[in-house]
Amino acid sequence: MIIQGAQRTGDVRERADAVVVGTGAGGGTLAAYLAERGWDVVMLEKGGFFRAEDFSQREEDAMADFNGRRGLDSTTDNAIFLNYAEAVGGTTVHYWGDSFRTPEDRLARWREESGLEWMTGDELNPHWDAVEHELGIHVAEEELLNENNRLVRRGCEALGVEAHIPPTARVDCIGCGWTQFGCAYNRKTSQLITTIPRVSKAGGRIYSDARVERILLRDGRAAGVEGVLVDRETELPRGRFRVDADVVVLAAGALGTAELLLRNFDDPTVGRRFYINPHYWVFADFGREIDNVTGIPCAYVVHEWRRVRRSADGEYAGGGYIMLTSHQSPGITAAMLPEAGAAHTERMRRFRRLGSLMSVIDEEHPGRVFLDGGVRKTEYRVRGVDVLKAVDYLRNASRIFLAAGAREVWVPDVYGTVVRSEAELRERITGRSVQPNAQFCAGSHLLGTAPLGADPDDSFAGPTGEAHRVAGLYVADGAALPGSVSVDPSLTIMGAARWIAAGVHERHGRAGA
Ligand SMILES: Cc1cc2nc3c(=O)[nH]c(=O)nc-3n(C[C@H](O)[C@H](O)[C@H](O)COP(=O)(O)OP(=O)(O)OC[C@H]3O[C@@H](n4cnc5c(N)ncnc54)[C@H](O)[C@@H]3O)c2cc1C
């Protein structure tokens, strides 16, 4: 059952076996697992409850309705836009559905550096098999590639670059192209239409517009949570809620989980590292209209440079990112393109001629999340080798578009960088393009702020997901991952959350299992 803030007057008191904070990739997956095994589950979601018919799929509506901080969240220097959703279903309401299992080299790193021995294919494959089945994840159909996708493929084939059509979380997609603003057709298999109804069906209660503020403790153990219910229209409080439970799971996303922990505990491991997979863009003018709007926004992914290459003496020699073909909507594109007035208008006149590719940089230098005067803030600076990765990406993305037949390629920086040849791209694309505020940069893979690990001085929670210092308190979302995944993270988050859920069930199992 979904209970919305506006439907309530007065306070709410609940008792459950488990209370789950956040209804996104991690929370939805874990809650459905437990609820279907006899657990009495309550879920609490700060954002609103939207149905397919509520999604107008207009940028301005979606940003206002369910983007975190109304689509205006950024790092303290305003250099990086942080993109996430606050809604029943979490950021999966927003996401594009590309679904990759964690690469083996990344699992090996987490085993070695974080002591997460269970991060193996043997442990995780059964959970990924289940999630992929439940979400209908499959390699996107050829018909759902738009022209931008096909042009990027052409460029990659011409250059001999490794790239693929990705697995996607959608069933019978009609290819409207606007999924980023909420799927209006119930085809993208976000948590909103998959795990959340399963929790309801198993008797769980899901409160939307319910902002958790406090984690309750009894004898040093987690004992529940409390917070405030709001009316989404008026933003006025409707009452307070309290949920008592033996197991408390935080799955409020890397920002939400960190904020909640920072408000409740003085623990230096929280928010110390904040990964975002910086996204930069390259646009290409093909001199004729191309379709970069319909179909699956990202139905083609360039994997060639996922791993860093090093020279014989260990110096950085390229790579450290993947590239995604990118959804293009007019408002956001206008915000990304450089210049103002007539020059900007001229660029936007060419909107329908533009292809685009974005980066997912596998960063080595994370940022941080902290409270300042009671306000959650983030700091993040693309620096060191990550600058070299960004420049390498800008150049290789430009090469792909030139090989695909683009007339000119635009790096949307304040210098208005345009390249038409290999010589120009070597000369004109430099580190100046990726200085803070020199071009639009975003992060939408938010990770690592309350990580799992064997070392209590370096991680918030132990390998099982249970906090080192608070029994019964678990983390099971993007915050829990030790770092960047090197590919889009949702399937890693879901697989890990399901693995954590199985452990919770085994250790604190309920009758009816
Ligand atoms: C535009 C876009 C496209 C993307 N595309 C892809 C893609 O194609 N493939 C992919 O793998 N990943 C993609 N991602 C990233 C992916 O969606 C996220 O990494 C993933 O959803 C994060 O899961 P999570 O469980 O950590 O948090 P979320 O899914 O963000 O869920 C956290 C929830 O907790 C709620 N919450 C926060 N604080 C509180 C509180 N105090 N009380 C109650 N509730 C709270 C939030 O409102 C939110 O709903 C995309 C992201 C964006 C923005």
List strands and helices in order, with pairings.
Elements: E1 2-3, E2 12-21, H1 25-35, E3 41-44, H2 59-66, E4 81-82, H3 104-114, H4 121-135, E5 137-139, H5 147-159, E6 163-164, E7 167-169, H6 195-201, E8 205-207, E9 210-218, E10 221-230, E11 237-250, H7 253-264, E12 281-285, E13 301-302, E14 309-310, E15 316-318, E16 321-325, H8 330-336, H9 341-349, E17 354-361, E18 368-372, E19 375-379, H10 385-403, E20 408-410, E21 418-419, H11 422-428, E22 442-443, E23 473-475, H12 490-508
Helix pairs in contact: 1-6, 1-12, 4-12, 5-10
This protein binds flavin-adenine dinucleotide.
Residues 21-27, 44-47, 83-87, 90-92, 94-98, 180, 211-212, 251-254, 256, 260, 444-445, 477-478, 488-490, 493 line the site of flavin-adenine dinucleotide.
Number of helices: 12
Strand content: 15-25%
Number of strands: 23
Bound molecules: flavin-adenine dinucleotide
Mean pLDDT: 96
Low-confidence residue ranges: none
Largest pleated sheet = 8 strands, mixed
Radius of gyration: 22 Å
Distance between the termini: 21 Å
Percent of residues in helices: 25-40%
- Secondary structural class: alpha/beta
Give the overall shape: globular
